[in-house]
């Protein structure tokens, strides 16, 4: 309905509306799979938990190493073919989970799936950037994040229902459903109309010069922002790892409150992510956003710490944790806006795939280091934990704000329309 589209801020563009369905379907399948994958591998396949952890880590490493190659392919063939290819590869990988017999077969299919997942992220971001104008990009990316949260919730409920009906068969249904979601998403993407940049003019490139990752690495501002993003993403691990651990180990709140806090976070992301992008279209608009993320996370850190000091006054503890989650969510929303804007806006169009694949490495780096840092702080130095995390995030955000000041759009390249 038009009123709903206006509320969430989805650009009134046919490609954007089709992409909304892609995002929902993709998220539903992922939301079905994530809660049951480890249980399936241990309870049904019979692998031990340690082997599963090692296997998933190796697969994630393989996906990270292959992402830059996908960036080069995006620049050569365009984002749409690469998104379709990644969706089809993911479908094959996760369908392959049904045929796992031992650790070796698990590693093979897990690597295929992770390569598709890691390569698909910069490809999807480049595809979104090619659908709409520069002024609409941030809103569309924010909408995608909002709608994916809805999809994750629906997927989680679907997997719970399937496992309740028949636990053993339910695992197979969930994995098959996830593979099917990738196939449907690929079919929808194939019908999206996008634009592609023309090749870089020879005069602009310079005699004998070839564009590639050397050009990306020579862009010091962009590389620095990518590195700093590993610090900005502290809000992600602090939420997913830190909050449950903190509530259970350092407050008197019941464990069930964690679910309520996460539900509150999800609802706020769905309702507010797009609306908080107002006034942000270019990298030069992001410094205030990064500052707000810093301030909000500082409030959240103080709230979490205060909840551990409130003793047995349950009502007061709950209020403090809710306030902390509200502030934490604000930091998450603003941090995401800054990340999307600088990563896409500062990427020259003819090298966008390579630029975004480099920026994606910041996600992988944080996923490797972030959980370890959060767990060590909360278990070994609880009195300082949240203040250290706030300092880490603040350093990343404020340095990113400084680098983004006055950042201009890269040299424009002429766009050529393509048919779906």
UniProtKB/TrEMBL annotation:
<dbReference type="InterPro" id="IPR011701">
    <property type="entry name" value="MFS"/>
</dbReference>
<protein>
    <submittedName>
        <fullName>Multidrug resistance protein MdtH</fullName>
    </submittedName>
</protein>
<feature type="transmembrane region" description="Helical">
    <location>
        <begin position="171"/>
        <end position="194"/>
    </location>
</feature>
<feature type="transmembrane region" description="Helical">
    <location>
        <begin position="52"/>
        <end position="74"/>
    </location>
</feature>
<dbReference type="InterPro" id="IPR036259">
    <property type="entry name" value="MFS_trans_sf"/>
</dbReference>
<feature type="transmembrane region" description="Helical">
    <location>
        <begin position="222"/>
        <end position="247"/>
    </location>
</feature>
<feature type="transmembrane region" description="Helical">
    <location>
        <begin position="384"/>
        <end position="404"/>
    </location>
</feature>
<dbReference type="InterPro" id="IPR050171">
    <property type="entry name" value="MFS_Transporters"/>
</dbReference>
<keyword id="KW-0813">Transport</keyword>
<dbReference type="Pfam" id="PF07690">
    <property type="entry name" value="MFS_1"/>
</dbReference>
<feature type="transmembrane region" description="Helical">
    <location>
        <begin position="20"/>
        <end position="45"/>
    </location>
</feature>
<feature type="transmembrane region" description="Helical">
    <location>
        <begin position="355"/>
        <end position="378"/>
    </location>
</feature>
<keyword id="KW-1133">Transmembrane helix</keyword>
<feature type="transmembrane region" description="Helical">
    <location>
        <begin position="253"/>
        <end position="277"/>
    </location>
</feature>
<keyword id="KW-0472">Membrane</keyword>
<feature type="transmembrane region" description="Helical">
    <location>
        <begin position="313"/>
        <end position="334"/>
    </location>
</feature>
<keyword id="KW-0812">Transmembrane</keyword>
<keyword id="KW-1003">Cell membrane</keyword>
């Amino acid at each position: 309905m038009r009123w709903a589209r206006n509320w969430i801020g989805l650009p009134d563009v046919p490609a954007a509306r089709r992409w909304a369905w892609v995002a929902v379907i993709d998220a539903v399948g992922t939301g079905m799979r994530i809660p049951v994958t480890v249980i399936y591998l241990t309870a049904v396949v019979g692998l031990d938990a340690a082997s599963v952890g090692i296997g998933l880590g190796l697969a994630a490493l393989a996906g990270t190493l292959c992402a830059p190659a996908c960036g080069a392919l995006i620049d050569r063939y365009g984002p749409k073919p690469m998104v379709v290819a990644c969706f089809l590869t993911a479908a094959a990988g996760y369908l392959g989970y049904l045929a796992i017999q031992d650790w070796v077969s698990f590693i093979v299919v897990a690597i295929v799936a992770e390569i598709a997942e890691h390569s698909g992220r910069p490809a999807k971001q480049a595809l979104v950037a090619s659908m709409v104008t520069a002024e609409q990009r941030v809103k569309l990316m924010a909408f995608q994040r909002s709608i994916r949260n809805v999809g994750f919730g629906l997927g989680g409920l679907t997997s719970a229902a399937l496992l309740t009906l028949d636990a053993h068969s339910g695992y197979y249904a969930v994995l098959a459903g996830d593979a099917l979601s990738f196939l449907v998403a690929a079919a929808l993407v194939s019908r999206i109309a996008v634009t592609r940049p023309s090749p870089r003019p020879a005069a602009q490139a310079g005699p004998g010069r070839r564009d590639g990752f050397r050009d990306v690495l020579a862009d010091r501002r962009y590389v620095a922002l990518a590195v700093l993003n590993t610090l900005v993403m502290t809000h992600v691990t602090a939420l997913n790892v830190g909050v449950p651990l903190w509530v259970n180990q350092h407050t008197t709140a019941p464990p069930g409150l964690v679910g309520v806090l996460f539900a509150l976070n999800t609802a706020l992301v769905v309702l507010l992510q797009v609306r908080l992008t107002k006034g942000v279209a270019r990298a030069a608009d992001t410094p205030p956003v990064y500052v707000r993320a810093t301030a909000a996370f500082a409030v959240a850190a103080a709230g979490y710490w205060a909840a551990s000091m409130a003793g047995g006054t349950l009502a007061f503890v709950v209020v403090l944790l809710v306030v902390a989650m509200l502030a934490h969510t604000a930091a998450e929303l603003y941090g995401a806006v800054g990340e999307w804007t600088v990563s896409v806006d500062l990427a020259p169009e003819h090298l966008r795939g390579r630029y975004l694949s480099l920026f994606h490495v910041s996600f992988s780096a944080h996923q490797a280091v972030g959980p370890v840092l959060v767990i060590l702080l909360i278990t070994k130095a609880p009195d300082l934990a949240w203040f250290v995390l706030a300092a880490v995030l603040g350093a990343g955000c404020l340095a990113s704000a400084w680098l983004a000041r006055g950042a201009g759009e890269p040299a424009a390249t002429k766009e050529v329309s393509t048919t779906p």
